[in-house]
Design brief:
254 residues, alpha/beta, 2-enoyl-CoA Hydratase, Chain A, domain 1, seven-stranded mixed beta sheet, four-stranded mixed beta sheet, 47% helix, binds coenzyme A
Length: 254
């Protein structure tokens, strides 16, 4: 079934959500965001479904982050963008059923954040993970709040400030990915893991998720929501976004 720009398939107790705009590296367009949210609502509403698996279509990317092609610098756009994107990225955390990100390629920016918002990341050995927003003069709003809890403060700062991607193996070492598997075994492994979870008692699984996620309240996201619009106002962000569109390196002011 097609939901927005996402394919939604029910396979017994497992729901498979495939982000499907590979020509834009499955960036978080309105269609992808709508499709993910509708898919999560279906997972929530269907008692038969016990676990969700999210992956990306195409060989190259899981998801390349926010849809830069839609960026503009009008205050109204910026306000809406931030207000939509942060709740979107929190939606997997809030889903009462376990979600697995089967990361098949690049997981960058919002794509990285979508992956860490899921309960588990199973990674292809070809995947790369990173928050490259600094190259646009921006920062990753969701990861700024969540990433240090996974990798520790210095590594989170390094990833955010340098914006350099890391390999699947390093992501696994850091605790971002639960395990790395050969690329052509990714879906098999992710589905087998999902089946294992689905065979456990529903209530206890759900309680485990809510217990571990109970510290992940929404309040700290308000900081990102309030502070991030200001980044869009800087000349460096306009230069970063323009440079991306012109396929050149940005020249930031000193
Ligand atoms: N939003 C919108 N479109 C995107 C995108 C994004 N986040 N990431 C990639 N695309 C598009 C490109 O514009 C390109 O479209 P085109 O063929 O119409 O020109 C297409 O996807 C393929 O990307 P391309 O840059 O040509 O591939 P590449 O292999 O040279 O580089 C990346 C891959 C991921 C390194 C590069 O696309 C990139 O840096 N993307 C942005 C990542 C990012 O900063 N994410 C955080 C956003 S806040």
């Amino acid at each position: 079934m097609r939901l927005g720009s996402v394919n939604f398939e029910k396979k017994g107790k497992i729901a498979l959500i495939t982000l499907d705009e590979p020509s834009k590296l499955n960036a978080l367009s309105a269609g992808i965001r709508q499709g993910v949210l509708e898919s999560l609502a279906k997972i929530e509403a269907d008692d038969e479904i016990r676990v969700g698996v999210i992956t990306g279509s195409g060989d190259k990317a899981f998801c390349a982050g926010a849809d830069i092609s839609g960026f503009n610098f009008e205050p109204e756009f910026v306000r809406k963008f931030i207000r939509n994107v942060l709740p979107f990225l929190q939606a997997p955390e809030k889903c009462t059923k376990p979600l697995i990100a089967a990361v098949n390629g690049l997981a960058l920016g919002g794509g990285f954040e979508l992956a860490i918002s899921c309960d588990f990341v199973i990674s292809s050995d070809r995947a790369k993970f990173g928050v490259p927003e600094i190259q646009l003069g921006l920062l990753p709003g969701f990861a700024i709040v969540r990433l240090h809890e996974i990798v520790g403060r210095p590594k989170a700062k390094e990833m955010s400030i340098l914006g350099e991607p890391i390999s699947a193996e390093e992501a696994c070492r850091l605790g971002i990915a639960l395990r790395v598997v050969p690329h052509d075994k990714l879906m098999e492994e992710a589905m087998a893991f999902a089946e294992k979870i689905a065979s456990k008692p529903r209530m206890a699984v759900s309680l485990a998720k809510s217990a571990y996620n109970r510290g992940l309240g929404g309040d700290e996201m308000l900081y990102a929501q309030d502070a991030f619009p200001f980044l869009f106002l800087t000349d460096d962000t306009q230069e970063g976004v323009t440079a991306f569109r012109e396929k050149r390196k940005p020249k930031f002011k000193d």
